[in-house]
Write a structure and sequence with these properties.
This protein has 298 residues and is mainly alpha-helical. The protein has a domain of 59 residues: Histone, subunit A (Orthogonal Bundle), CATH 1.10.20. The protein is built from 13 helices and 5 strands. Helix 5 crosses helix 6, helix 5 crosses helix 8 and helix 6 packs across helix 8.
Length: 298
Amino acid sequence: MAIGLAKWLGCEILNADSRQVYRDMRIGTAQPTATECAEVPHHFVDFLDVEKLYSAGQFEKEALKWLENWFSSHRTAVMVGGSGLYIKAVLEGLDEVPASVEIRERLHKELEENGADSLLKQLKELDPIHYAKMDRSNTQRVIRALEVCLASGKPFSSHHSNSAAERPFDIRIIGLEMNREWLVDRINARVAQMVESGFESEARELHPKAHLNALQTVGYREWFDHFDGKLSRDQAISAIQVHTRQFAKRQMTWFKRMDGINWFDASNRMAAFNWAMACCAERGWSPAPLDGTDPPMT
């Protein structure tokens, strides 16, 4: 859908997936393929070493800088991805919150030595509001919230405002949703395809770095448990499918709370494309379809 839109609009794509930014995680994060990137250039994909920490705040600054430069000579850009906080950062902005590299490094060491339960217990005590609503399986978010609590002496949730930052560009948001049964089938098939494409080998190469934050990710954690003798191979694959379905449900919960999303059935993406054409027409602009034909909607 994003590639079809970008081709019609004559623009490029910003990735807003917090794991596709990393190198050496091509299969497990379902990065755009070389063919897809040749069709339309993708930005913020496959550019960071897994050892590096990268936050939604950093993404906000770098993506806005890219957009400022892009919009100096182009009318549109397409942003696509499933990381709600990254999308929120670009569309609405994030509050400035304290940071402490020293505290962050200490928390990462504690995670490595004692596991996530110790950090979660601290966060529950320091900020029960944020603890109750956050994705507690995402250790990076847990560490970031604790870092802010400890650095500021205030709950992480107290730093959040409800006011969106003004942006020097118009925003139109398309959301795709599908029947739950179809979604489950697609997720199961997708995991099987990733395994056939070499997901296990990719994870095995990264196993020595399993403690890194970037690898506390659905898919890799389950393979690591298999390599450590905690799960059989079949159990690991089944766990990846289950955890991916659970993650998809959390994603949809996040996006359903966002304002301004125009929802379309994923089985009828032409409806979404026609809506996008109408949005352009409202601004008095009608890009010509690529080569005189409709863009691919496969």
